[in-house]
Structure formats: structure tokens, C-alpha cells
Amino acid sequence: MSNGWRAGLQRGGIELRHLLRNGKEMSGHLTNVVVALLVAAYVSDDVPGTRTPMAHLVLAGFAAYLLFQIGLINLPQMLVTEREEGALLRLRATPGGIPAYLVAKCLLVVVVAVATLALLLATAALLVDGPLPHGPADWLTLLWVTALGLLAVVPLGAAIGAVLPNPREALALIMLPTMGLLFTSGTVFPITSLPVPVQQVASAFPLKWMAQGLRSALLPDTARTAEAAGSWELPMVALVLTAWAVLGFLLAVPLLRRAARRESGSRLSARHRKAAQSGALPA
Q: Tell me: the pLDDT tens digits for 134-155?
């Protein structure tokens, strides 16, 4: 194992332990699960044209959105915050610092995402009769869609975090488009109920395909008739998510290196002075 991978895994383990001790961050992930369960509990009727409960479609969609959110909202915020605290400046003096940093963040995000997904599916099955895979093939689909979905969004989230401004502006810049994708990607209601141009735009982004792949693993096969193509299109799910994964990896490392090169002690001090003047930090 290379030094970069070893250092990244060690750093990731340390960050996981810190996360488990941070009640505020843990409660944020738990809140997302509670919101998904409450929405599912109050949804009635079946998916149009099928006998599949609409609550099951909502839970599958929320499962995809939680993975998407952790990669494209939580991770960029984390990176911007650490950049403001001088983490990228310190990486400049560390051999293999950027790759190890990326490995650590990927480990942290993947563990949190998989744990959140498992918690959502388990509690939904126990409390609101939520869906679970019906056989080995569905469990395998759940695993590869989750893995490929995270590969599609985690590097992309790292790339976004490398170019965003301060943490407060970062949240505003990424929250609106991700919430827009939540409502246009077929995660909370059938995508066929949306205008065709909206469906086409949503199809360019990974969330639509993550949700479709998870529906194929969690819903009965008869529910595929409610999909835009009348099928799960799993080869297309794999193709689109792989394309986003490759794009994210091609962008993440050079953008983080560029951000690290631009860091300096004077830039960091200037940001701290500005934050103190605005009241974001104690003077």
C-alpha cells in the first residue's frame, strides 16, 4: 500500500472518531432520516399505474438523495471550512498531502453515507413497512448502485469544495441547485409526472440515475412501468454514474492542488481578520 493511501486511511479513521464524538453533526444526519420517515408515513396511494405504495418510491428516492447530499452538500462545506482554517496550507508542506487528504475525505463520506442509508432502510422497514431488496440480485444491485453513486458524487463534491468561497456563501450556492434536483429527478414523485424537458435536464445529472437504480433494488419489478423508459435501464445507470465518477476524479485532484498552491499565510490571516470583523470569529 502506498504512503498516500496509508496516510489517507489513517487520517480518515481519525476523522471518523471525531465525527462520532460530535453530537451536532451526528444529529444532522439523524434528522435527515427522521424527515424521510415522516414524509413516507404521511404519503398514501400507489404509484400511478402500479400497485406499489407511493411511500416506497419516496423512501427509495430519499435514500438516493441522502447519498447525493452527503457528497455534494456536506463534503464541499467541510472542505471550504477546513480551507478557511488553514488545512490546505498545511498540505503544501506534506508529501502526498492532497491524495491522502482526498482518500481520508472519501473514507469519511462513504462510511457516513452507507451508515445513513442502512439506518434509513432498517428503520423504515421496522416503523413504516418500508421496502427492502427481495433477493440476492436486488441486494447486489443495491450495493453496486450505492458504490457507483458515491463514486459519482464524492470526487465531484471535492472539486466543488475546492473552488467555493467561504462556508456561509458555499451553502447558499450549492443548496438551491441540489434542492432543485431533488424535485426534478423523480425522487419524491414519479418522474413521468414532470414535463419532458424537465426529465431531460434531470437525466444529465447523477441523482436521477441513483434514484432509479435504488428503485430497481427496492421496489418490485412491476414498478418499472412507472419509469420514463418503462424499464430500470440499469446499463444506462451504470454508464452515467461512471461518467460522472471519471469527471469528478479528473477535476478533484488538480483543483485541490490549485487551491493549495494559492494558499499562503497572508491570505489565511486576511480571511481570519475579515471573519473576525464580521463577527463570524471572535476578534
A: 899 999 999 999 999 999 998 8
